[in-house]
Amino acid sequence: MLDLVLIAIGLGLLVVAGDFLVKGAVALSLRFGIPALIVSLTVVAFGTSAPELMVSIAAVLDHAPSIALGNVVGSNIANILLVLGIPAIISAIRTDEHDTRESLVLMLAATVLFIVIALLGPIRWPQALILLAGLGAILFRQMRQALSHRAERNGTSDGDVLADDGLEDADAEMPGVRIVLCLLAGLIGLPLGANLLVDGASDIAKALGVSDAVIGLTLVAVGTSLPELATSISAAVKGRADVALGNVIGSNIFNLLCIIGVAGLFGTIPVPLQMRQLDLWVMLAASLLLVPFIFGHRVIGRWMGIAFTSAYLAYVLALLIGGYV
Q1: Closest Cα to residue 162, out of 268, 35, 291?
Q2: How many CB atoms lie within 10 A of CB 298?
Q3: Could you give the angle at which helices 50-61 and 65-81 cross, rounded to 10 degrees?
Q4: CA distance 253 to 208
Q5: Sequence-separated (6 or more) residues with CB below 8 Å from residue 85
Q6: How far is CA 317 from CA 115, 203, 226, 235, 282, in A?
């Protein structure tokens, strides 16, 4: 029970601290005159993935690297099957309202690169640098395209850009003291929450005889994906379920290239045999599921949302049944 309480407290701190960090960082960036478009592509991207990043770093430093790897692979699977599946049940996700074909190709390329590196052995700092280089190239390309696209739409305001990222309440006039407090709350709460979550998850894994990788793929992965899930459900309720699609694709790219890229600089991350045989391929298969919808401009409707969610529950059940040693 104590470990479950630690996990609950850790998740709560991650969600709240991550929100504070994003709001404070966005307000600070806007105060310095940085365009909202650049903020949404950099500060928001890093801030919303901060929980996963801190959990992975804490896991590596606490000598539980399988939790870090499982967190990323499990989060990517959950993002597609669960974070898209549940909103699709509430409101159909249209894929023809925004052209995300190139973003999907980049996500598939990042997925293949990650799988190749994982299959070649433990992830150390040279492999981590390759992943970070890939992230840098993608961010540079997206930033150039976004700036070019905005130049063609001179009427696009900063508020519209931030609203597209779910930050319509961003305050460019936030008092300096409040900005500092938000940043401190985020910077202190994130590592504290991450440590509580990793410690609790590791103890539960040992008590149940389940591997760290399985805990990372299930409990930790779903926990760190809760902010994305909450955002997607909120968008679906507001009739903007299509927004979830872009968020999931961007989050998956960031998870693969940045989180493991940074965590790999803090220590060696071995790749368990089970992950090489099953979980990496489930992640790739889940990613490929989006191809016919995005390239065929097909709607992800209620029944497909149910199928996605059911597939995720079946995957988790299979992991738990086969996760005992």
Answers
A1: 35
A2: 14
A3: 150
A4: 32
A5: 305, 306, 307, 308, 309, 311, 312
A6: 23, 20, 19, 28, 14
Residue 265 pLDDT level (bands cut at 50, 70, 90): very high
Instruction: Please list, residue by residue across 19-56, b when 16 or more beta carbons sit within 10 angstroms of its beta carbon and e when fewer do.
Output: bbbbbbbbbbbbeeeeebbebbbebbbebbbbbbbbbb
Give phi and psi for 210, each to the nearest 5: -100, 145
> What does each C-alpha distance from 75 to 80, 208, 315 come to in angstroms?
9, 22, 13
Exposed/middle/buried for residue 163 (C-beta within 10 Å: 0-12, 13-18, 19+): middle
Separation of alpha carbons 250 and 180, rounded Å? 28
Question: Do residues 221 and 35 lie in contact, with contact meaning Cβ atoms separated by under 8 Å?
Answer: no
Separation of alpha carbons 233 and 199, rounded Å: 29
Distance CA 148, CA 40 (A): 15
> Reduced to 3 states, what is the DSSP secondary structure of residue 150?
helix
In this structure, how many other beta carbons lie within 10 angstroms of the beta carbon of residue 63?
Answer: 9
Written as six digits, the tokens of 143 are: 């930033």
Q: Which residue has the tokens 């896991």?
A: 59
pTM of the model: 0.79
Handedness of CA 163, 166, 169, 171 (dihedral sign): negative
**What are the tens digits of pLDDT across the range 77-102?**
998 999 889 888 888 887 776 667 88
Cα separation values, 103 from 12, 138, 245, 284, Å: 31, 9, 10, 15
Question: Domains in the chain, please, with CATH?
Answer: 49-166+205-322 (1.20.1420.30)
